[in-house]
Amino acid sequence: MENMIPLWLKQRAFLTPNRLAIETESRALTFQELDESARALALTLATYGITSDMKVALLQDNTVEMITSYHAISYLGAIAVPLNTRLSARELAWQVSDCEAALLLYDNAHQEKVNSIVLERSSFQVCNINTLDQLVVGEEHHYLKAEMRSDAPHTIIYTSGTTGHPKGVLLTYANHWGSAIGSVLNLGCTLEDKWLAVVPLFHVSGLSIIMRSVIYGMPLRLHRHFDAKAVNEAIIHHKVTMVSVVTAMLTKMVEELGDQRYPETFRCMLLGGGPVPEPLLKVCLDKNIPVYQTYGLSETASQIVTLSPEHMITKTGSAGKPLFSAQVKIVDEHGDRVAANQAGEIVVKGPNVTSGYYKREEATQQAIKNQWLHTGDMGYLDEEGFLFVLDRRKDLIVSGGENIYPAEIESVLLSHPEVEEAGVVGMKDEKWGRVPVAFVKLKNKAKITETDLQMFCRDALAKYKVPTRFYFMDSLPRNASGKLLRRELVKRLPSDFQ
Amino acid sequence: MENMIPLWLKQRAFLTPNRLAIETESRALTFQELDESARALALTLATYGITSDMKVALLQDNTVEMITSYHAISYLGAIAVPLNTRLSARELAWQVSDCEAALLLYDNAHQEKVNSIVLERSSFQVCNINTLDQLVVGEEHHYLKAEMRSDAPHTIIYTSGTTGHPKGVLLTYANHWGSAIGSVLNLGCTLEDKWLAVVPLFHVSGLSIIMRSVIYGMPLRLHRHFDAKAVNEAIIHHKVTMVSVVTAMLTKMVEELGDQRYPETFRCMLLGGGPVPEPLLKVCLDKNIPVYQTYGLSETASQIVTLSPEHMITKTGSAGKPLFSAQVKIVDEHGDRVAANQAGEIVVKGPNVTSGYYKREEATQQAIKNQWLHTGDMGYLDEEGFLFVLDRRKDLIVSGGENIYPAEIESVLLSHPEVEEAGVVGMKDEKWGRVPVAFVKLKNKAKITETDLQMFCRDALAKYKVPTRFYFMDSLPRNASGKLLRRELVKRLPSDFQ
């Protein structure tokens, strides 16, 4: 028989109605208030015809409304599809269409982009959450779920792959539950905890904080945009005990902090999204900042491997050990487990691991074998079982916490009528970690400039994906079977930027 | 596909090998040491032919060996059947035989009883864990599991029912997991936690502490027997932060405590096993003891409803609200939900709730309908959803935290050749809460005394089940259809003892 679970927000509002659920600079909501808002919004969404298993795309900033949207969608048994607000209208239109969203729920900040999206595609309804009529909390309604199947899909999160279009990662209630529980068994929880969400709520890192908040009954402090000073003040003056950050954010926070210290009650700086420079860790150590380095993917509903601060020195460079119910192994190209300290592909398993990609049967079968997810990332386990990540997925460029796949940019470049070949790699950048740069072979007699290509990319891609430089070449390095050798391209970069 | 989970102790020993797992007055073991002992014992049990799905009955005191036994059995994929050490040899023989145990693993303290059990039945092997040859930790062995199906049975715990023989409650890994997770989401957890196990490890209350210890990575302090002074010292001097107790224990602890206070770091007195007298709660309030009253059953793998200390006064008499993933409802005799403040049967649901009784298809179907367990206990929910338990299962006698079912004692009495009718009820007792007393109608011309019947019961029953008094009657009160009216019997008791 299916495992039915009470709807999380409903249950939380029943158990601890008066606990603080969300605080922003200007507002504070209890779980009961959040629940009332979510139910009201759900009833409104129902008037748009939204019902079980339909998809609702979200294009919103980090706001109370965004959190309410997630919960309202759950109340209808529908599936949330959070969209990266930094994507171009064309990219967004593609995702909304690919997931067959019935509705795009957006906020004032994205009106203009939505207009462009609708120009691209219009097979869905749109609704501005800020201009909805005053919602009325009606009688408890047959539209609203009280329970969910634990294996029902909760979210589809798009992630770029090594080839072509992004894929929608299906995350079930059980996946989010597994993530929240794995985290609490590692980090603990107390009534004093308050988790700051300043990472985007459309990313799994932000979404997972919403989940923990409602599952633990823990207040979430919400910042709309990242501002190092505001984050430091939240920790020092607003009793924030835990924060999720990426390296670029932590760097700025530490700079801004200066001679100040975080209070002792601050207990977790959860640091994800790519490699961490050793000097930064050393500064954190000096300032007694409890950094938990993590490794995770959209496919694992956030962290799956985490390093405790006690190992910051002895295991520098490691992402740590798996969460309690999760497992990690390193395999060779035949899928066989390799010995300690041998590099190979990182393969993971656990209740937080996705069961597949939406409508991508083949990609799912390639990635998930016998419940083990093949991440495409390279790494090794030392003799004690600590994971060291060597390379994120083949040629992945991590830029300020965002993942950029060269193949996606290359395919845009190749769609330009004057471009014959294109290769994209990451170039070192002081601010963002890495930024994409392009190597291009033009067609005979083509007469276009770097600026032309940049403009062309801007139409199709999120700004952070647009190559910052273009190198024109007569031919691109390829192996015998014609495969592009991106590593050879990297060598053409000035040595300081490789 | 089945949900596979890493074996808990193996995973825990991998993740945090050097954390304290168990401490007693004289010993301390890390999780790695506990794991080594458990694997060694598992390999030894394998030489007895123990393998997946076989049952191993445990007759042991609260010792490190008892905890090791549980984990060793898991390592083989076998099922633990903890036996109540207070039962008579006849009762024990029946349970060992009913569960088809392949092995009875006991300790020195129970050698004599085991001799008697073997006289009763001998369809199983016996093994004294204290006289096992020095165990050798071998190479990692194909006998030892690394993963388990989450729906695999972990334990069979016998519980008496309203009729006839006890029934074996099947508890899966998922049930124990659900219980541990429900508890952590309610009580939180920190690296400073240490849980004292002084309740019996053969009860679900003790077993659940073992589970929490390995799942949370939290030290368990183990006391062999209950001694109020020792428990208070453990709290005051040995950094115990949480204790599971029953009312009779708490009463003695508070007495023994005198003018002393528990340190502020002591954060949870988990109080289960029946009704709590208000004066006791008041004393706890005065002494600032954080009492969490709970309601739970073997069938729910320990607590399923818990009252936080903040509601000790406002909700006196309530057992609280359900754990996060659990649900409670009150139904009438047709199974329909009743309104707030209306009494009815307590019906519960959640991941910690058993899927049934071992080899008792009919009893399972009667008790569990559509995933809801009908507890047989009576109670109501107030308008805020707080549970108030009115009566434990029909005529249940709770005596010092042990459940006693009149039907079981009556059936023993009725097996006496001179007894024609028998009825058993609970009589108030200052020390134990209640104790069983019997009303008996003898056959014509029977010439037996109270002492004869007491001796007869002692052969068949655990001491705590033997009626402390026998009342001889000419006839027992019955309703029109001949059903014994135990409530009428209660009225025959002296009014102070009703």
Automatic annotation (TrEMBL), chains A, B:
Any idea which UniProt keywords this protein has? ATP-binding, Ligase, Menaquinone biosynthesis, Nucleotide-binding
**Gene Ontology biological process terms from the UniProt entry:** menaquinone biosynthetic process
A Pfam family per the record: AMP-binding
Single Gene Ontology MF annotation: o-succinylbenzoate-CoA ligase activity
Every copy of the AMP-binding enzyme C-terminal domain together lies at 408-483
Task: State the InterPro entries in the record.
Answer: AMP-bd_C, AMP-bd_C_sf, AMP-binding_CS, AMP-dep_synth/lig_dom, ANL_N_sf, ATP-dep_AMP-bd_enzyme, MenE
Enzyme class name? ligase
- Domain AMP-dependent synthetase/ligase, chain residue ranges per copy: 11-358
This entry's Enzyme Commission designation comes to: 6.2.1.26
Q: What's the domain of life for this entry?
A: Bacteria
Q: Which Gene3D superfamilies match?
A: 3.30.300.30, N-terminal domain of ligase-like
As its record notes, the protein acts as a catalyst of: 2-succinylbenzoate + ATP + CoA = 2-succinylbenzoyl-CoA + AMP + diphosphate
Q: Which pathway, metabolic or otherwise, does it act in?
A: Quinol/quinone metabolism; 1,4-dihydroxy-2-naphthoate biosynthesis; 1,4-dihydroxy-2-naphthoate from chorismate: step 5/7; Quinol/quinone metabolism; menaquinone biosynthesis
**Which PANTHER family does the record associate with it?**
LONG-CHAIN-FATTY-ACID--COA LIGASE, NONRIBOSOMAL PEPTIDE SYNTHASE PES1 (EUROFUNG)-RELATED
Q: What does this protein do?
A: Converts 2-succinylbenzoate (OSB) to 2-succinylbenzoyl-CoA (OSB-CoA).
The UniProt entry's sequence similarity note says: Belongs to the ATP-dependent AMP-binding enzyme family. MenE subfamily.
Name-wise, this protein is: 2-succinylbenzoate--CoA ligase
Q: Which organism does this record belong to?
A: Pullulanibacillus camelliae
